[in-house]
Each structure stands twice: as C-alpha cells, then as structure tokens.
Request: fold
Amino acid sequence: MRPTAAHAWENIESALAAGDQAEDAPHDDNPVVDRGPPPRMLFFVALIANGWFLRAKSFTYSPGTESIPTRFKVAFSRWFYFLLFWIIGLVTVPTGLVGLAFAGWLVWIMLDLRRILGEMDNQVELKSEHQ
Reply:
C-alpha cells in the first residue's frame, strides 16, 4: 500500500527534525511524476471540475495534500452533480433560458481555460534567500 502525501510529508518533517541521526528515506519505486499526462480533453474536464465549474483551477502541488491522481478522481466525481444541475434546470425552467445560460457558461469557461493554460506556461526560477 502506497503512503498518502500527508503521511510522506510527516515522515519528511520528522527526518528534518532528527537531523544527522535520521535514517535514509526509502526509495520511491513508483513516483507520480514519472506518469504520462492525461489526454488533453480529459485534462480540461478535470480543470473545470476542480474549480467547481465556476472557473478552471489547476492541480498545483502542495506538501501534505493528496496525490494529483486522487484529486483528479475527486474532481471527476463532481461532474455528476453538474449534469444533475442542468437536467433539473431543463425540467423546471424554460429550455431557451437554460440554453442561453449554458451558452454563457460555455463562453466563460472557455475564456477561463485559455487564461489558465497561459498561466501554466510561465516558468519561474526559484532562488534561495541565502545567496
């Protein structure tokens, strides 16, 4: 069983606190970073769901959070509620209004996807404060 990111981060913190007396870290035989990227459309769908369909939100790495594949699964589970929302809208509100609202949302989310993809291309060099 693979330890969670939170568990791994706790191990790192305890090793840092132990200093030179800490044991060597075990080798990661199946690192997440060595996996290939998902198909482009699947990636876009995940970004939209990660932002709760109001905006596209990237899956940034943060120590102590779940792995990105786990966060992808959580994001995909939100699509059920999104589709249910639109189905309820079609049943209770005139179809023209629902279509207009969906078209507006689609334009909004496409512009937001374009924005976030532009931000993902920025690479910043991190420098130590002690230089």
About this structure: The chain is about 60% helix and 0% strand.
